[in-house]
Predict the structure.
Amino acid sequence: MRILAVESSCDDMSWAVVKDGTDVESCHVFSQADLHAVTGGVVPEVAAREHVRQAIPSLRAMGEAIGGFQNIDAIAMTQGPGLLGSLIVGISTAQTLALFLGKPLIPVHHIEGHIYANWLERDKDEIKFPLVVLTVSGGHNDLYYMKDFFSYELIGHSLDDAAGEAFDKVARILELGYPGGPAIEKFLKESEGLSIRRHLPRALKQKGNHHFSFSGLKSDVKRHVQLLKDEGTFTVEERIDIAAAFQESVVEVLAEKLFDAAKYMNAQSVCVSGGVSANNALKEYMLTHAHKHGFQEEQIFFPMKKLYSTDNAAMIGAAAYYVAERKPEKILDTPEKIMGVSPLLVYTVGNDA
Ligand code: KG4
Ligand code: ZN
């Protein structure tokens, strides 16, 4: 089954063609990062207007890349959650395309997309159930237990900021640019091997507590920076130390909580997805600490490419395939159903999905 998918929930418009949930025939992300770097974050109206500008040229580029749309079986798009203006552009483009080509439409939840990004370019049965998956990016920081495809139990979430949001805020405090995760990683690249002098807090670290909290950590960074600025010692060396101590804290908290939850739930696989799963330090920590927690490296899964960690349409095409296979009632196959899609009516990924 070949699915043409579009994702436009935030600041990037992406198109992809994915076959049978795993084979990525084509995936393009039309990034708006440069535009939002100017303001140090996404201004929703600016993002929506750029999506309007990008929609048709990016669709045309996709059509050229795959030699036309004649062999597509279905169209998929992100229904939500996300920025309303951005979502509406992707949804209406997908609706028009489905009606024009006479193909069914499959709406996908953004977080479900991130979850199924782990199946891209892998054998379908490589990831064993039951599993625990951490979806962690700018807008969400959730832990799900899955007994099978489409069986989700939300077992933990952030009580305040998501880890990606903390990366973005701390990068702004340290004057490193946007998006924060890649900016901090790049900044730290030159200082690899340096020992970290500061120890920043690890919130809610007690075993058995599967929730997260990152806003205190961000406030702590703010306090350190203010002190240095007051003393006139806000040097590159100090910024490196703070950035490294911040990343160390986030990585340890995410990884240790994920291992703890996976052990508690008797999981066969431990998966990470979402923008923060592109972080090299997190992947390295997970792989080097797996044994200590009773897991083999082969039981730890990150998306195969960084492209599939951050927002992309291939993950939407993958999730849509599993929707079609396991939840055919969710396929919209009449003009009335296709036109009825609304970002305000997005379902919940959780015990009722
Ligand atoms: O999944 P995503 O593209 O969009 C959302 O659904 O939010 O994730 C974007 C988030 C941003 O907060 C960004 O700073 C973070 O993921 N991120 C990273 C890295 N790449 C992206 N965080 C840490 N390290 C990275 N390499
Ligand atoms: Zn996302």
About this structure: The radius of gyration is 20 Å. The first helix runs from residue 33 to 37. The longest strand covers residues 23-31. Residues 110, 114, 137, 274, 311 surround zinc ion (ligand 2) (CB under 6 Å).
